[in-house]
């Protein structure tokens, strides 16, 4: 039924409210709401027959000093409430307000969505509908703020992590009258942080090629990107596995969520589990107060890229298998499992099949990872891409070094085409960077191309002149032999009798690759 609301404007004087009230009462009607401002009165009356309403309006308009009587859509307080409701429903945080007895008086749409409520729990007691920790409830009761507290709340969709903030409300006497609580999903916070800090991502348009072989691989990767299945990228070091992983992510429906790249060989065994899965407060000495989410949690709704997956130790292989099977992670030191929605793209340059035979890699994990295998061929198998890659690197390093190199001579390009490129595209990039530094004109010449012959820069007499240089060469040779014999950074560390971290640092120091 239509509500009857009117605005009455008048020359301000004493007794106007009394005159209006008497007219309404004379007709036997009820005033349901009345708002008085200087020179204005907003009147809402209960529904009534039309003849009685017309009589009331006629008599009010005849009151001395009344000069305007018009119908309105909203009473002032109704409009303010509507505006406030629109504001709190437009923010990304869930908002709840409670009184001093913890009874909920406000719940916005976002709070209902993230907490799984079918209807607003207005009138319910807060701790009966939300299992908040006791320390947070005590702070609210004492009128103290709660700032950025991470909690686990059980919802209709299972336990989830939220960030809680609370600001107290005080009455005129300074007594605690309630609180306003804001709730935000941790995954949403991580997504927001990612959107503000993420680097520019690559797409399939950024992959440089002209060969039919790479085109077929790109077409395959574009097709599988639209799905959600696990992808296993295989190929030698330097073939562009991470480039393809990032392009698959950007082509997928998850493009607006985080892409998290993890080099499984670069993180020591002692830290790898806590990095991937996180840890609870006080789990170990030096643990951050309040605990820390793992990379799987950070990648929620996005993609996690596990490079050098073959380097995962057995106990972490088991936990990764559970993530793939159950879609949940458990932080170190916690019993609660948290649901994560993550697409996994793994990569390796080793034969996982051989590792399974030796017992170094779980067969069940391999089958879970190998849903969509994509093999990236070495550069020596698609040398027709070298000319377009060379052009790309010339443009890239022209911009980086502020040079104006225009191209490469035929004999210099011939040198590149005749080389077998064990380091693949990464090695080609290094050779081109060196050539761009050495080039003195506008064309790269054959003398500017130095491939795999560092001794050309140092004479034999100088090479072992200093003891420090001799030690470096000996250390490098021992490292190369251990890597060759062990096949991985971890195995090399055991052969040399040093830590895995030391081997990784030495690999970076000498510009080597783990394979």
Task: Name a few traits of the molecule.
5 domains, elongated, Beta-Lactamase, ATP binding, Alpha-Beta Plaits, 20% strand, 515 residues, Rossmann fold, ACT-like_dom_sf, sequence-specific DNA binding, alpha/beta
Structure write-up:
The chain has 515 residues and is of the alpha/beta class. The chain folds into 5 domains: 4-78, Alpha-Beta Plaits (2-Layer Sandwich), CATH 3.30.70.260; 91-192, Beta-Lactamase; 204-375, P-loop containing nucleotide triphosphate hydrolases (Rossmann fold), CATH 3.40.50.300; 379-448, Helicase, Ruva Protein, domain 3 (Orthogonal Bundle); 467-510, Arc Repressor Mutant, subunit A (Orthogonal Bundle). The protein has 21 helices and 20 strands. The strands form 6 sheets. The chain has a 5-stranded antiparallel sheet with strand order 6-5-9-8-7. It starts with a strand and ends in a 6-residue tail after the last helix.
Quick recap:
By secondary structure, this protein is α/β, with parallel strands linked by helices. Helix content is 42%, strand content 20%. It has 5 domains: 4-78, Alpha-Beta Plaits; 91-192, PAS domain (Beta-Lactamase, 2-Layer Sandwich), CATH 3.30.450; 204-375, P-loop containing nucleotide triphosphate hydrolases (Rossmann fold); 379-448, Helicase, Ruva Protein, domain 3; 467-510, Orthogonal Bundle (Arc Repressor Mutant, subunit A), CATH 1.10.10.
Terminal Cα span: 79 Å
* The CATH topology of the largest domain: Rossmann fold
Radius of gyration over C-alpha positions, nearest whole angstrom: 35 Å
The tally of helices reads: 21
CATH class value of the largest domain = Alpha Beta
Give the tally of β-strands.
20
Into which percent range does the helicity of residues fall?
40-55%
Domain unit count: 5
Proportion in β-strands: 15-25%
Given helix and strand content, the structural type is alpha/beta
């Amino acid at each position: 039924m239509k509500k009857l609301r009117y605005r009455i404007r008048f020359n301000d004087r004493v007794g106007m409210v009394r005159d209006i009230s008497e007219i309404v009462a004379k007709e036997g009607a009820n005033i349901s709401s009345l708002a008085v401002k200087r020179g204005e009165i907003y009147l809402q009356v209960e529904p009534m027959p039309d003849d009685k309403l017309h009589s009331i309006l006629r008599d009010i308009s005849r009151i001395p000093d009344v000069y305007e009587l018009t119908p309105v859509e909203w009473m002032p307080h109704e409009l303010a409430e509507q505006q406030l409701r629109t504001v709190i429903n437009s923010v990304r945080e869930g908002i709840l307000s409670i009184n001093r007895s913890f009874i909920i008086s406000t719940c916005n749409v976002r709070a209902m969505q993230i907490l799984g409520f079918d209807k607003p729990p207005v009138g319910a007691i807060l701790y009966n509908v939300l299992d908040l920790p006791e320390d947070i409830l005590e702070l609210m009761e004492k009128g103290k703020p709660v700032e950025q507290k991470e909690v686990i709340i059980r919802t209709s969709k299972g336990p989830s992590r939220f960030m809680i903030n609370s600001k107290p409300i005080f009455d005129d006497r300074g007594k605690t009258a309630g609180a306003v609580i804001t709730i935000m999903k941790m995954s949403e916070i991580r997504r927001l942080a990612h959107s503000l800090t993420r680097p520019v991502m690559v797409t399939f348009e950024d992959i440089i090629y002209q060969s039919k072989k790479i085109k077929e691989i790109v077409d395959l990767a574009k097709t599988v990107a639209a799905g959600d299945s696990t992808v296993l990228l295989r190929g030698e070091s330097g073939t562009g596995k991470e480039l393809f992983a990032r392009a698959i992510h950007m082509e997928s429906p998850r493009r607006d969520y985080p892409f998290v790249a993890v080099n499984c060989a670069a993180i020591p065994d002692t830290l790898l589990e806590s990095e991937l899965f996180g840890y609870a407060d006080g789990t170990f000495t030096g643990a951050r107060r309040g605990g820390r989410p793992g990379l799987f949690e950070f990648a929620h709704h996005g993609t996690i890229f596990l490079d050098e997956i073959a380097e995962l130790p057995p106990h972490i292989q088991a936990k990764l298998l559970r993530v793939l099977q159950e879609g949940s992670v458990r932080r170190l030191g916690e019993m609660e499992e948290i649901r994560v929605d993550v697409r996994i793209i793994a990569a390796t340059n080793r034969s996982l099949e051989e590792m399974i035979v030796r017992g170094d890699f779980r067969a069940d994990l391999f089958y879970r990872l190998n849903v969509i295998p994509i093999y990236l061929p070495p550069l020596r198998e698609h040398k027709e891409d070298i000319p377009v890659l060379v052009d790309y690197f010339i443009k890239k390093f022209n911009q980086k070094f502020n040079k104006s190199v225009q191209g490469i001579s035929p004999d210099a390009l011939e040198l590149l085409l005749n080389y077998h490129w064990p380091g693949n595209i990464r090695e080609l990039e290094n050779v081109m960077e060196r050539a761009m530094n050495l080039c003195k004109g506008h064309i790269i010449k054959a003398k500017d191309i130095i491939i795999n012959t560092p001794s050309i820069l140092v004479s034999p007499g100088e090479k072992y002149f200093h003891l420090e240089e001799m030690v470096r060469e000996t250390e490098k040779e021992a490292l190369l032999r251990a890597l060759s014999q062990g096949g991985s950074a971890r195995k090399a560390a055991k052969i040399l009798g040093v830590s895995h971290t030391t081997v990784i640092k030495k690999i970076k120091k000498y510009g080597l690759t783990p394979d």
